[in-house]
């Protein structure tokens, strides 16, 4: 092929990948009515175009720690049934009986990382700073979480940032619902509960201020050129830079055995000052997985997927998630939320209706098992009334039903599920 054609093809590939990058995590809503335009010289920097927003090039040598830790069959099953939703990974990862040949940078076709598979029965233990429950020592009576390091990540920022985050609504001028304030309230109730069960607990955020020193104005130059640059810079701030700052704290300082990402779900509410209230509420838990073809094509996400898979976080997340889901169901009776099959960004987990594998920035970047909770629907009539009732002891009649505080119910169900899991999995004293 003539050299000039190669250059053009590379540029087209870069343009396509850059488009994927921007659409990832909804920085730019896809617009099906606009025909694609291909500039002969697209305005992308090759070094950044294969990465997720604000991502940096991975150090592939870090995967050396996982040589001979997994059998080919286990690798393939995890890859096809949990971690991906399409087949694009096969363009980047070739499996032989002995190894996985992983393309690191598709623009340089000879850049391949070779991961050797383990012989059955001879799997080496993967390197990781977190400890799975079955490798913890026996726990004293009544302290099933003893020695366990847990980081609680209250989702979003809340406070003065809640409107910018679009996690804010107010019904008829009433006290606003700010998701970031609700998750912080649950975190503050949850921490002493987990500590009384023996865990050492840290909060990734304990105020309504962001961890990242960056602000939207600092990110204007990073915002994609299509769309409203101000809005896109804001999203880069609260959705991307903030989570990356939290991941740095979790991975470099806290180094927990488990992260709990607390959220409240919602249905589309339309106008935040005249929101739609719905009748139904539901809940589900998210584990890391379900990478789309576009995400697998990004070098940093491909690396992060492999680090998750090789650390065997999925198995640990599923074991914990099953117990936590059971505890939530028994406490709340909420039905499961169901992703549409055509969404192509979620996988079911072990047929459990409450567990879904999805690739979110937080559950991908935190370098340990992550349970990401999405209970309740903030704009459902009943949950809205419970949120407005605030935190209280005991039960109160709300919408005709005796109900505990929604914040305590959340914290208690989560603590109960974790206690039940670790009680089962840890050796007896
Ligand atoms: Zn949320």
Summary?
With 429 residues, the protein is of the alpha/beta class.
Could you walk me through the main structural features you see in this protein, from its secondary elements to its overall organization?
It contains 13 helices and 14 strands. The radius of gyration is 22 Å and the shape is globular. β10 and β11 (352-357) form a beta hairpin. α5 (179-196) packs across α13 and α10 packs across α13. The strands form 4 sheets. The protein has a 7-stranded mixed beta sheet with strand order 7-4-8-12-9-11-10, with helices on both faces. It has 2 domains: 1-49, no CATH class; 133-425, Zn-dependent exopeptidases (Aminopeptidase), CATH 3.40.630. It has helices spanning 3-23, 46-49, 72-83, 89-92, 179-196, 216-219, 229-254, 293-296, 299-311, 313-332, 361-365, 381-389, 406-425; strands at residues 93-95, 99-103, 112-116, 149-154, 168-169, 177-178, 200-203, 258-262, 283-287, 347-349, 352-357, 370-375, 395-398, 401-404. It is of the alpha/beta class. The longest helix has 26 residues, at 229-254. The N and C termini lie far apart (68 Å). Zinc ion is lined by residues 155-156, 179, 263.
């Amino acid at each position: 092929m003539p050299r000039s054609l190669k250059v053009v093809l590379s540029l087209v590939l870069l343009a396509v990948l850059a488009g994927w990058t921007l659409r990832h995590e909804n920085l730019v809503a896809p617009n099906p009515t606009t025909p694609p335009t291909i500039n002969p010289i697209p305005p992308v920097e090759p070094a950044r175009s294969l990465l997720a927003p604000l991502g940096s090039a991975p150090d592939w040598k870090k995967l050396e720690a996982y040589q001979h830790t997994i059998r080919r069959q286990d690798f393939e099953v995890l890859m096809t049934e949990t971690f991906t939703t399409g087949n694009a990974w096969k363009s980047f990862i070739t499996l032989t009986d002995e190894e996985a040949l992983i393309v690191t940078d598709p623009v340089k076709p000879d850049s391949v990382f070779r991961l050797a598979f383990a012989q059955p029965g001879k799997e080496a233990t993967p390197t990781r700073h977190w400890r799975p429950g079955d490798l913890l020592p026996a726990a004293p009576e009544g302290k099933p979480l003893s020695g366990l390091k847990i980081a609680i990540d209250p989702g979003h920022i809340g406070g003065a940032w809640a409107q910018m985050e679009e996690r804010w609504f107010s019904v008829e001028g009433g006290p606003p619902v700010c998701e970031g304030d609700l998750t912080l309230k649950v975190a503050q109730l949850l921490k002493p509960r987990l500590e009384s069960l023996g865990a050492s607990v840290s909060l990734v955020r304990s105020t309504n201020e962001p961890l990242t020193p960056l602000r939207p104005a600092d990110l204007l130059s990073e915002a994609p050129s299509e769309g409203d640059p101000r809005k896109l810079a804001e999203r880069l701030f609260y959705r991307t830079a903030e989570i990356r700052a939290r991941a740095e704290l979790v991975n470099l300082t806290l180094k927990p055995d488990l992260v709990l990402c607390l959220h409240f779900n919602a249905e589309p509410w339309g106008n935040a000052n005249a929101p739609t209230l719905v009748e139904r509420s539901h809940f589900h838990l998210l584990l890391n997985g379900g990478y789309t073809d576009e995400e697998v094509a990004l070098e940093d996400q491909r690396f992060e997927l492999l680090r998750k898979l090789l650390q065997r976080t999925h198995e640990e997340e599923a074991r914990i998630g099953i117990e936590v889901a059971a505890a939530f169901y028994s406490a709340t009776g909420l039905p499961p939320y169901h992703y549409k099959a055509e969404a192509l960004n979620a996988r079911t987990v072990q047929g459990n209706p409450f567990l879904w594998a999805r690739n979110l920035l937080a559950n991908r970047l935190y370098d340990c098992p992550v349970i990401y909770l999405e209970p309740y629907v903030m704009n459902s009539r009943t949950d809205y009334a419970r949120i407005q009732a605030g935190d209280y002891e005991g039960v109160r009649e709300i919408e005709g039903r005796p109900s505990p505080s929604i914040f305590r119910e959340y914290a208690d169900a989560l603590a109960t599920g974790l206690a039940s899991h670790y009680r089962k999995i840890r050796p007896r004293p």
